[in-house]
Automatic annotation (TrEMBL):
One of its GO terms (biological process) is amino acid transport. Residues 1-22 form the signal peptide. SUPFAM superfamilies: Periplasmic binding protein-like I. CDD domains: PBP1_SBP-like (cd06328). Residues 25-371 form the Leucine-binding protein domain. Gene3D superfamilies: 3.40.50.2300. InterPro entries: BCAA_transport, Leu-bd, Peripla_BP_I. Pfam families: Peripla_BP_6. This is ABC transporter permease. Belongs to the leucine-binding protein family. Keywords: Amino-acid transport, Signal, Transport. The keyword Nuclease does not apply. It comes from Microvirga brassicacearum.
Length: 396
């Protein structure tokens, strides 16, 4: 009788283990799909799902386990983002989560990941604090941070001659972090350039006349090269600043990268230079080739800024699960620290110290003869990750 019970118990244990192995891989994707950054969120979702499709060869299963994605809209609200992540971990029982669009919402989510002991891959929020002073060991980020944007922007500035820079940014975490990062980056790799003035506006600002005048006044009498660097999310102020003719003072505008609809205004300013996280025509690798071809086929447009980011997050998640041999959180963390994974931009690596993805950036020049509305940029230079000495800012 005891032998029968022992056999039955062993059989049950095997069946339970088999069932556990066969359970879905559950992933929550949280994004700000309602509000002014809706386009960013939709691109992230499209890229994430296309990434899963590419990596699983269309099966939507990984190592014998079906992948289940639960998408939640935080409406760019920090409190809602926090609540949705709590629900994802506790009610939906997800193995890990991806998100979110707004830096403020992402910052609210960080302690939730720590409290629940679950991995959160931050994409596409960029505030430095996410992998800086607000970071914890459950946080990994595939998106670039503000400092990576800043080092790329600095690398696009001439390395010789006196350069005066004035910044225009939105008055919240993304904008202020971005300006602070630009100042640090210039000191590190372009000591010939200095930020001489900072202008901050509300996120929803539409009238830039007064801001432009303050920027012009700060720069117009400076010797050497004079540049306005714009750090912006959403509808870009470039046309309104350019309409006020900064060139009459010898002032140039250096915008950052943005989504294609926002950058279509750039074609009116051929020769303008800046730096960008991703532009569909720049990376040359099979993953990006597939993404560009399939996205064009499905959406009649090339993949965009945040599409590549969503794809990168999918690659990070599945590469980690593969390397960890499952979805156990501690094994995932061990696997992800120092992990290199493929993305449409090429390889990224999670830095062990703060789990920030180290990655290339791109120095661009605006084309004067693009063949269509999205043929906007030409590549000046690919900026390697090791040429951007991003400081470690967490308290680990």
């Amino acid at each position: 009788m005891r032998r029968t019970l022992t056999f039955a118990a062993a059989t049950a244990a095997i069946l339970m283990a088999s069932t556990a192995m066969a359970q879905d891989i559950k992933i929550a994707l949280i994004a700000g799909k309602t509000g002014p950054l809706e386009a960013y969120a939709k691109q992230t979702e499209a890229g994430f799902m296309m990434g899963l499709e590419y990596l699983t060869k269309g099966s939507m299963s990984w190592k014998g386990r079906k992948i289940s994605v639960i998408v939640k809209d935080d409406q760019l609200k920090a409190d809602l983002a926090k609540t949705l992540l709590e629900q994802a971990y506790n009610d939906d029982k997800v193995d890990l989560a991806i998100g979110t669009t707004s830096s403020a919402a992402a910052l609210a989510m960080l302690p939730v990941a720590e409290e629940n002991g679950k991995v959160l891959i931050v994409e596409p929020a960029v505030a430095d604090a996410i992998t800086g002073e607000k970071w914890n060991r459950f946080i990994f980020r595939t998106s670039r941070n503000s400092t990576q944007d800043a080092y790329a922007a600095a690398a696009a500035i001439p390395a010789t001659g006196e350069v005066s820079v004035a910044t225009l940014a939105q008055d919240y975490a993304f904008g202020r972090d971005g300006v602070a990062a630009v100042k640090t980056a210039l000191k590190e790799i372009r000591p010939n350039a200095n930020v001489v003035f900072e202008e901050y506006t509300p996120q929803n600002a539409t009238d830039f006349t007064a801001s432009a005048q303050r920027l012009f006044d700060a720069l117009k009498d400076k010797p050497g090269k004079k540049i306005i660097t714009i750090i912006w999310a959403g509808q870009h102020p470039l046309p309104k600043i350019a309409d006020l003719k900064p060139e009459r003072y010898g002032i140039e505008i250096a915008p950052g990268g943005n989504i294609l609809p926002a950058m279509q205004i750039y074609k009116n300013y051929p020769g303008m230079e800046g730096a960008i996280y991703y532009y569909y025509a720049f990376p040359k690798n099979p993953m990006n080739d597939w993404l560009v071809a399939e996205h064009q086929k499905r959406f009649n447009a090339p993949p965009d800024f945040f599409t590549a980011g969503g794809f990168a997050a999918a690659s990070a998640a599945l590469t980690a699960i593969d390397k960890a041999g499952g979805t156990d959180t501690e094994k995932l963390i061990a696997a992800m620290e120092g992990m290199t994974f493929e993305t449409p931009k090429g390889p990224m690596t999670f830095r062990k110290e703060d789990h920030q993805a180290l990655q290339v950036m791109y120095h661009f020049k605006v084309k004067g003869d693009g063949k269509d509305a999205n043929d906007l940029l030409e590549l000046v230079n690919t900026i390697p990750a090791d040429k951007m000495p991003i400081p470690v800012r967490n308290k680990r």
